[in-house]
Amino acid sequence: MESPFDVLGISPDADDGEIVDAYRERVKEAHPDQGGSTAEFQAVKTAYERLQNGYEPGDPLPEESPAADPEPEEAPPEPDDPLVEFLNFEVLEDHGWSLDDEDLFEKAADANLRSPDFGQFYVDPNDTLLEAAEKNGFAWPFACRGGACTNCAVAVVEGEMPSPASHILPPDLTEKGIRLSCIAAPISDDAKIVYNLKHLPEVSELLLPASRFEQASSTD
Ligand code: FES
Question: Which residue stretches, if any, does this entry annotate as coiled coil (predicted)?
């Protein structure tokens, strides 16, 4: 069996950040929806979990120690979990791009942007978009986590993300695809999302200050 380092394509002395970056890249490549296979996807997840659990170079792997207790493998995410491609709104401002640009995400891909400004993650069916972002290690803005402050606003550029009935956004913004990531999640197979939309003027004028809520994001 390949070592977890080989599976993720990193050297045995890779630090935690390099391991996480390599995992995020490999798990996308290996996902069945992206041309990989279930076996490859599972191998990448298993390798990452072993490294998270303290695997060191030279430690025996299951095939090399048949007497070891079999470890229960975590089931991979359902292949049909929504895949979100995200982009930081502040990048649009820096590059002079617009939410209305039809090729916005193509331009972002060509600009060699990196996480956390640009990337992808899957959304578990039980999670809101904000929860999914946080599970994947991203600190997206929030304050109330209940649809009342607009700090978590995102723009749905592509895909479907229904908006719950009760929230602070006016109809003209929801008609433009603005959603609150703390109370909504995509339901389409793929979605393109611009986050950090609190800097958009129409959204910023609705903001309630994060100081009114106990667990506000430090990105304010
Ligand atoms: S965090 Fe306040 S509306 Fe989402």
Answer: none
> Does ligand 1 come within 6 angstroms of the Cβ of 150?
yes
For residue 88, the surrounding DSSP H or E stretch is strand 83-88
Among candidate residues 64, 95, 112, the one where a domain is terminated: 64
How far apart (Å, rounded) are the C-alpha atoms in residues 122 and 28?
Answer: 9
Q: Return the best residue to mutate from 128, 140, 145 for the ligand 1 pocket (most ligand atoms within 8 A of CB).
A: 145
Give the model's pLDDT for residue 26: 82
Name the helix (H) or strand (E) containing 179.
strand 178-180
Please give the number of the atom of ligand 1 that sits closest to the Cα of 181.
4
Cβ 152 under 6 angstroms from ligand 1: yes
Nearest Cα to Cα of residue 116 among 17, 220, 216: 17
pLDDT 10s digits, 4-40: 999 989 999 998 888 878 887 787 677 655 677 767 8
Indicate the angle between helix axes 16-30 and 38-52, nearest 10 degrees: 170
pLDDT tens digits along 181-190? 999 999 999 9
Residues 59 and 151 in one domain: no
Domain membership of residue 192 as a residue range: 83-212
